[in-house]
Amino acid sequence: MVYNIRKYSLIGFLFAFTSVYAQGDDRSIPDLIPKDSLETEDKYRPFEFNLTVKNMHLWRGYRVTDEAMTAANVYYTSKSGKFEAGLWGGVGFAGNYTEFDYYISFSHETWTFAIWDINNYTDFPDAQIFNYDRAETSHFIDVSVTYAFENFPLQTSWSTIVQGRDTYVNSSGDLRNAFTNYVEASYIVTDGKDWNLSLYVGAAFSFVSDNHFYGDKTGFNNYGATYSKTLKVFDRYSIPVSATVMWNSLQDYGALQVAVNLF
Fold first, then answer.
1. Triad 185, 186, 191: Cα angle to 5°
2. Which end of the chain has fewer CB atoms at under 10 Å, N or C?
3. pTM for this one?
4. CB of 56 within 8 A of CB of 67?
5. CATH 2.40.50.100 holds for 2-261
């Protein structure tokens, strides 16, 4: 019962945080400059790719890798800009980190729905790419919904892992899915022509188990700040960069990530 009270109090805090600011917006470099309009024939390109370099890789309070890495994203975008599907891959410079993901997302007005098949197989050298058995797989499938306030720099999201290596052992000794949830709120506190500073707070919990994907209890596993800006190179090229400082109360550590979006 104490566990449930703590869990629901945590959820209430995050949404209270959202409500307070509403009365008065998640993994690398936030969009500082809006994407080119997809409404005109000469600007619409259905397929695109980009490359990001980081000193380390942070994700939802996890230090996924402490080594410098590259992240590549190849994706398709519909003409309306509402649907996107792509492949995301990350590789560490020292070869100790490897990840290969698939994703789809759909946006409507201020809502975005996404499904990611995340496959970080760094610690699964013998993993089979199409094996989704919860006891053996290197995959986990994450479903999320994000809401961005229209005239206010606040964004909230709720994500749930619905399949894969997010497990716990029940009282009968059976391996079951924990269906771990992660909720986050981020707020741009100040900005300029080509920069902004945002604060964020995220928490993780499961409705069926104390242990979950992000830790062994309910709590704030991801909070900090991100400073983003656009570098001008030869007064011709614009390169988005960001620095994110993160603390994780569940894992008891902090980290600083610097990311450069090369193209």
1. 165
2. N
3. 0.85
4. yes
5. no
> Three-state DSSP class for 9?
helix
Higher pLDDT, 232 or 59: 59
Structure tokens at 26: 């998640």
DSSP assignment letter at 185: E
What is the Cα–Cα distance from 180 to 210, expressed in whole angstroms? 10
How far lies 109's CA from each of 47, 119, 208, 242, 247, in Å? 22, 30, 33, 26, 32
Residue 12 has pLDDT above 90, yes or no: no
pLDDT, one tens digit per residue, over 86-115 is 999 999 999 999 999 999 999 999 999 999
Q: Which amino acid is at 44?
A: Y
Mean pLDDT value across residues 62-81:
97
Q: Which phi and psi (to 5°) does residue 171 adopt?
A: -65, -20
- 136 vs 119: CA distance, rounded Å: 12
- Taking residue 77's Cβ as centre, other Cβ atoms within 10 Å add up to 19
Residue 95's CB is within 10 A of a number of other CB atoms, namely 9
> What is the residue extent of each domain of the chain?
2-261
Place of tokens 């599907």: 85
Residue 10 confidence (pLDDT): 55
Residue 38 pLDDT greater than 70, yes or no: no
